[in-house]
């Protein structure tokens, strides 16, 4: 493996580790448990999972892999706070969506070369990219990995309660 | 900047972003606020901050930068759960320790080349490293960045309460 490929491989391992532990945690919960709040008056687990799923779905066009699979998630889990919109999705349905989105992302990731990772993502202009070359796919991957960890840390607070 | 250096630069940016937002959050709290729990019956903010500080201090020898600055933190914030040990450290003292450790780490990071980042960290044996070459400094950096985000996501739950 080349040095460049090694850096890509490590970031993908970190991403996968976070996706796997997050998916495993939420997938193990009952429909009733998914309605528990992470802390009094805070978001419910179902909302957090939906939020992470919607953000991952948005990575598909952002990284240039194609059209979103589930743009309808944004109205429920991004543009509205928890409880603002009547939520009809079940945990079982969300689990299926989460898995399909993560499979699509992994397939997209696997086709990128090291230089593809350093290329700009789709919402940076050419001019901005000249000034800020770190606004590339790799930085997005690192940021979304932190985002997963941030919310997983919150979700895990409900364990053994 | 070479391609390899670009990958290092991006991981360091992600680390710094997480250190900065975490330090800014905890540093803004009063001594009284630092004793608030992140959720009922869960760790107090002071414990989380101490825990993150101790884990970062342990990076100094792990990455080969020298001896720990504050090994005494482990008894309070790693080997014991919150409230198990009488805690005499103030928030002001911890802030100073947090800043000094992060300065030492940043200095160490800045001296590493891309190939230094791919070299094994100090607790992997040569034999294990042959089999698992991703057990290097860079992977540690990515993992600790996720660890910061994980606990920052918990700490932020106390905001605007």
TrEMBL record, chains A, B:
This is DinB family protein. It comes from Tunturiibacter gelidiferens.
